[in-house]
Amino acid sequence: MDAKExxxxxxxxxxxxxxxxxxxxxxxxLEGKCNCCKEIYYxxxxxxxxxxxxxxxxxxNTLEQIGAISRKNMYRISDDGNKMExxxxxxxxxxxxxxxxxxxxxxxxxxxxxxxxxxxxxxNITLKEA
Length: 130
Known about the structure:
Elements: H1 3-13, H2 20-31, H3 37-47, H4 53-65, E1 69-70, E2 76-77, E3 85-89, E4 95-99, H5 100-113
Antiparallel strand pairs: 1-2, 3-4
């Protein structure tokens, strides 16, 4: 079962109707290019000019409530079984999308250079608020 099918099942189980607009919003989120509701709305309105911002916000809230997305995950579809990507924004606005193997290598190199890892490989990375 792919991510979209899994989300549709979660929506149905939670009692939500699966409309054309909701399916389109899922597609926009699955594209992984949006970092906020405004960007999701912009992309969605290009596909369906009749969609309103409130529809987008309600759908994002619904997806978050059923555990399909996480705001901490920058509106990416949650899937514990898949590899993760890391999006890094540099101060000049450049955005780097690093697949898991690349960002793990970047962190390992940094840890080695600073003398923190003792040459060990990175097993897990968890972000938390300070």
